[in-house]
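hi! just following up on the protien thing from before. the input was this:
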Amino acid sequence: MLKEEYGRWLDRAVADPDVAAELKAMAGNEDEIKECFWQDLEFGTGGLRGVIGAGTNRLNIYTIGKATQGLAAYVNSTNKNGSVAIAYDSRIKSDLFARTAAGVLAANGIRVYIYRELMPTPMLSYAVRRLGCDAGIVITASHNPSKYNGYKVYGPDGCQLGLEAAEYVLNIMNSVDVFDGVKHADFDAEMKKGNIEYISDEVIDDYLSCVEKQRVEKDLDLSGLKVIYTPLHGTGNKPVRRILERVGVTDVTVVPEQEKPDGTFPTVPFPNPEFRQAFERALELAKTVKPDLLLATDPDCDRVGIAVRRGDEYILMTGNEVGAMLLDYIAGRRKANGTLPRDPVAVKTIVTTDLAARIAEKHGVRLIDVLTGFKFIGEQIAILEKDGEEDRYIFGFEESYGYLAGSYVRDKDGVVASMLICEMAAYCKTQGKSLLDYADDLYAEHGYYLCSQKNFYCEGISGMEQINGIMDKLRGDHPAEIAGIRVVRVKDYKLSCAVDLRTGEKSVLTLPKSNVLGFDLEDGGSVIVRPSGTEPKIKIYLSAVGRDKGDADAKREALEAAGTAMLGF
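and the predicted 3d structure came back as:
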C-alpha cells in the first residue's frame, strides 16, 4: 500500500520541484518511504504541523491543499459568501504554502485577505475579527526547528479552530484525494480578478493602536529604558519595534545577525526564547551595549522571552516568573490608578504556576484555570464577550512564554507582551529596582514557587508508541510518591476524574477531556505529564514550593530526577 502511494506521488507530485526531487531520491529506501507515507498528517484543533518534505506525512503544497479543501468545505457550509484571512511567517516555503492555500480557497468561491508580507500570528487573529472573516490561516511552526512548518486555522472569533469544526475539516480531508479532490486557482490571476486581496496598512495600524491601549501607566516615561531586541529571524522585527517606538522606548538595539527573516535560522538551531541558546547573540552584544533588558520573540512573534541585567550578568527569567509579575503589575497598578474593572478576570493554564492564584487572591481577581493551549484562554474571553463583559478580562498567560492583555485578539501576543514587559521594567526602574528584584519580592510575599519542565523527544512511529505506552502505564499504576513526597491527588483529564488518595473521594474535572495526568503533592508541589499536541515529545511540568529559594530549588531538582525516572528515561 505504501509503495503504491509512493509510486502515485512519484508520477503526479511534480508541481513543486523540491518535492519531485525528494521523491526520486528516496527510491529504494523503504525506511524513508515508510516515514513519509505511513500516515496522513493529522488535522486537529491546532491544524497541521510537520516536517517539510514529500509524502502524506510531510508538509507540502499537496497536504496544504488537501487541508485547505477541507477548510473551504467548512466555510461554505456556514456561509456561501465566506472569506478567510491568511498570514505567514519566515519559515521555509511559508509564502508558497500561503499562496497555495489562497488559490484553493479562491477556487472554492471564498474571498481571501492575505498580508502582503510576513506577519505575527496574533495579527492573523486580529485580522479575522477586524475583517469579519469566517476563518483564518497562519502558516507557521512557531518555535520548532527549521525543518518544520505548520498550518494553523482560526475560527471567526479569532480563536484557534474548535473541536467540532476541526473534525468537520478532518472528515472532508479524509474523503478528498490529494491530487484529484482539491480545487486549485492561480494566485496572481485571482488577485487580478479581486477574489484575493492584500490586507491594508489600515488594519495593521489599527492592530498597533489596540496594542497601545493596553498600557497600564500611560503617563510613565519609558525613554530611559535601554533594550536589546532580537526577532530570531522571524516576524517580530517590524511590529515590535514600531510599538516600542510608539510608547517611547527609543533606546532599542536590534541584534543585527538575527534581524532579517530567514527560515533556516542560521544563528540559532532552535529558535525558542525559552532557551538560553536563543539569546547567545544578544548576550554577546550586551557586553558592549549594557542594556537593562533583553527581549527575544519567537519566529511567529506570539511568545517572548527576556533576560534582565544584574551587575555584569544577564539572568533569563521563566515564563512563569514573567507571567506572575505581569499579573501582579497589571492588577496592582490598575487598582491603584482606578482602571481595574469590576470583578476582574485572569486566566492561566493548568500547567502554569500556582503563584498566580496567590497574586489573584491578593488583588481580588477571579483566576480561571484552563487546559494547555492558548485557545482555551481565548475561549474564556469569548464567553465574557457574549455577555458584553470582555472588559473584565485583564490578563491571561501560560508557562511557555505566552501572554495576552486585552480582548482585541484571541491568541498570545508577543507584541503586546514586549510592550508591557518594557513598561513594567521602566516602572520598576523608577522604584530603584529591576525585574529580578520584583520577582524576589513576589516570592518573599507569597512563597517560593519554582517551576520547570522537561521534554523527551520520541520521533517516528516507535516514538508515538513509546509515548502512548508511558501514559497507559502511569494511568494504570500511578506513583504513590514522587521524590519522596507523598502524592495526595491524581487528576486524569482524559477520564475527567480526580481522586483524593487520602480519602478515596472522587470528583469530576469539568475541563474538556485531554490526555493529561496530574499528581498533586503533599507539600503543595505538583507533577503534570502531557504528550505534546504539536511535536513528537512528552513533557513533564514540575512545581516545587519551598520555605526559601534554596529549599524550593533542591525540591525542584529532586522532582526533575524522579519525574525523568518515572517516565522511563
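Residues 428 and 434 are 6 Å apart (CA to CA).
The chain has a mean pLDDT of 95.
cheers
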